[in-house]
Design a protein that fits this description.
- Keywords: Hydrolase, Metal-binding, Zinc.
- With 372 residues, this protein is α+β, with helices and mostly antiparallel strands.
- It has two domains: 281 residues, Zn peptidases (Aminopeptidase, 3-Layer(aba) Sandwich); 72 residues, RNA polymerase II/Efflux pump adaptor protein, barrel-sandwich hybrid domain (OB fold (Dihydrolipoamide Acetyltransferase, E2P)), CATH 2.40.50.100.
- The protein contains eight helices and 20 strands.
- Helix 3 crosses helix 4.
- The longest helix has 18 residues.
Length: 372
Amino acid sequence: MKINHHNLPEHALGGQRRLTSFHFGQRGVGKKIYLQASLHADEVPGMLVLHYLKRLLCQAERQGDIRSEIVVVPIANPIGLAQVLLNGGVGRFDLVSGGNFNRDFPDLAQRVRDSLLAQSFSDASDYRQRVRSAMIAALGAMPIRSEVAALRQQLLLLACDADLVLDLHCDDQAILHMYADPAYRQQAEILARFMDIGTVLLSQDSGGGSFDEACGLPWHRLVASQTEWRQFGLGCMAVTLELRGQQDVSHALASNDAGRLYRYLQYYGAIGGEPPVVPEQETLMLPFSAGEIVRAPASGILLLLRQPGDWVDAHEIVAEVIDPLTDTVTAVYAQAGGLIYACRSAPFVTLGAEIAKIAGKTPYAGGGGLAA
């Protein structure tokens, strides 16, 4: 295992932070796999999972079983990790700009398209290699105007040339679920089965510039821009794994999830040993555009009537908001219905606060949409 430290520019004098990456295998040998956790720094479950996965990878390395280049970043956001306000972590939003740490990653397709137009490609392998080299060069040439911009740049430098990108997150309270590109539907379902994930939300471009889409979406945009490039296909399967809720941090859960990731990497061919059989499991593949975010119609005490994992019908009551000053009880309804896969844990809400996320089966006008 090789350990690299990547210094970020000082936001203020005397306060330099660094990103740390762990490298297994040899660069350029086999497919490249990139895994990171806690880009939203207050989402800790993935951090512990990668702690356990590193142990397994170190053991595989000692046995000579690493067949690919594997890069692991257990703490993808040292900036957010240091944001502690009144003894509570604020890891989702940058306190300087107010922006979500997992939004507004640069569009690499836009930055490399012109340089690629001047080149010719002999085959798909040559095309992928040249695209990746162009992405790395474009990232290196980007002007850095903030510490957060430098973090985004460095994360993409580590991941943009990977064949497989796994971004580990969690929600407030949630079931295991995953966001994936519909172009990789079959491959995503296999990953979900290994991870015991029963729900996969499919979206190619959710519109937020998230990290996973910054890795996978440029390949779509490039082939869409040039007809002759379509023959070369795509170059990166990038997914977001949502590892339950923020409080689901335990040795048992993390070691089990790490073991499942390890077995998937064996199946993928990145680690030696007998490839495991794909687990038999029913996995729902649902369009992200059929989802909804249920918001509080009033402020007050939140009482959830349905929980993550429950199916609800359109216009069904999923929660109540109680105003103890007027004794008003306001019902909260699902709009289109579907599977509740995440919900709020705090028992008090303000007007418009997010209460629950529901994944439906049929896209509808206004469906989808990103959480703040």
